[in-house]
Amino acid sequence: MSENAKHQEVMSKLQELLASNEVEEVGLKLEMANGETHKFEFDLTEEEAEEEEEEEVEEEEE
Predict the structure, then answer these.
(1) Distance CA 32, CA 21 (A)
(2) DSSP character at residue 29
């Protein structure tokens, strides 16, 4: 399997799972060829999204 095909497989699986609307949290760790590591965490629950929207509205009102 070529490197590009592997990348497409990862993206396809991620899209499939996210499309299910069953994912609440995503933790992603990328290990780069140069040895660097990048970590990301995303909370996909609606509660947090609503809280962030409320905070943005409050900031705009000030």
Answers:
(1) 29
(2) E
Task: Say whether 57 sits in a helix, a strand or coil.
Answer: helix
Contact between 29 and 38 (Cβ < 8 Å)? yes
Give strand pairing partners of 40.
28
How distant, in Å, are the alpha carbons of 30, 41, 54 from that of 38?
Answer: 5, 10, 30
Query: What is d(CA 2, CA 18) in angstroms, rounded to the nearest whole number?
Result: 25
Is residue 20 within 8 A of residue 12, CB to CB? The reply is no
The residue among 53 and 44 whose pLDDT is bigger is: 44
Tally of CA atoms within 13 A in the half-sphere of 62 that contains its CB:
6
Share above pLDDT 70 across residues of the chain, in percent, rounded to a whole number: 74
pTM of the complete model beyond 0.90: no
